Amino acid sequence: MDVFEGWKITSPYGYRVDPFNGSRVFHTGIDLVKYHRYPIPAFVGGVVLFAGDGGPGTGFGGYGNVVALRDDKGYVHCYCHLDSVSVARGQTIKKGDIVGFQGTTGRSTGSHLHYEVRSKDEPSYGYGLHVDPGEYLESLENEEDDEMLKEKVADLETQMTALKNECETLLNTAEAHIKEINTLKAQLADQNMPEWFTKEFGEEAEEALKGVVDTPQGPNLFWRLVAVAYRLRRKG
Q1: Residues forming CATH 2.70.70.10 domain(s) in the chain
Q2: Tens-digit pLDDT profile for residues 172-227
Q3: Taking the alpha carbons of 101, 106, 109, 114 in that order, is the dihedral positive or negative?
Q4: How buried is 167 (Cβ within 10 angstroms: 0-12 exposed, 13-18 middle, 19+ buried)?
Q5: Backbone CA torsion sign across 12, 18, 22, 23
Q6: Of the four, 52, 77, 83, 181, which is 20 to 30 A from 206 by CA?
Q7: How far is CA 114 from CA 41, 61, 97, 143, 235, in A?
């Protein structure tokens, strides 16, 4: 994951040779280059804590024009050596909003952006509490990806629940239809010639009664009607 895609990195986070005195020092941020006066977008959203010249005692000494903002996790993002700033203290900005323009103010050997991330906003805006900017931005993007994944999983779970409820409804409906069919089958089974009818009229009555009663109205009524009709027929 390249959080600085499109930027030229001229000095990474970590130990390096100081460009002014040649000594080995720890570089507390990452130097990024586009072109002079390039409009610098915020890598994250947050509240602007500082916007202006980073003089002695501010926590930004030697950084020239600086914009520092605090994100939702309390980390301070420092945009340093700006040619000019375009936000004001107390302003809330979103990721991608322009905070200033690439420059070479302060202790600088050329136009670039010194981007630094600090884990606290005090004292002195977290001076000395720096973290690896690339790793921190990657962790934020991973969290965003995790949140998106959780949302997708939650959406799928909602769809699965709805599908399960729909299947249960269809299953209950099918079971109700099966029960109704079984009831009808039982009723039809009950309409076979009962024993009392056979004893009174004989087995030949089954053949003789064809066409006499075509539509049964229930087991008991049906065979009563058949008995009456068959008696009338036998009487001639």
Answers
A1: 8-131
A2: 888 888 887 777 666 655 556 667 766 776 666 666 655 554 444 455 666 677 67
A3: negative
A4: exposed
A5: negative
A6: 181
A7: 13, 13, 17, 25, 118
Taking a C-beta distance cutoff of 8 angstroms, is the pair 85, 65 a contact?
Answer: yes
Distant-in-sequence, close-in-space partners of 171: CB < 8 Å, separation ≥ 6: none
* Number of Cβ within a 10 Å radius of residue 156: 10
Partners of 52 in the β-ladder: 66
**Tokens describing residue 194:** 């009962």
- Quick one: residue 131, left, alpha or beta (phi over 0 = left, psi -120 to 50 = alpha)? beta
Segment holding 138, helix H or strand E: helix 133-189
Q: What are 228's two structure tokens?
A: 């009456």
pLDDT at 215: 47
Dist CA 179 CA 112 (whole Å): 80
Q: What is the CATH number that goes with domain 8-131?
A: 2.70.70.10
Alpha helices in 27-132 (DSSP H): none
- How far is residue 223's CA from residue 216's CA, in Å, rounded to a whole number? 8
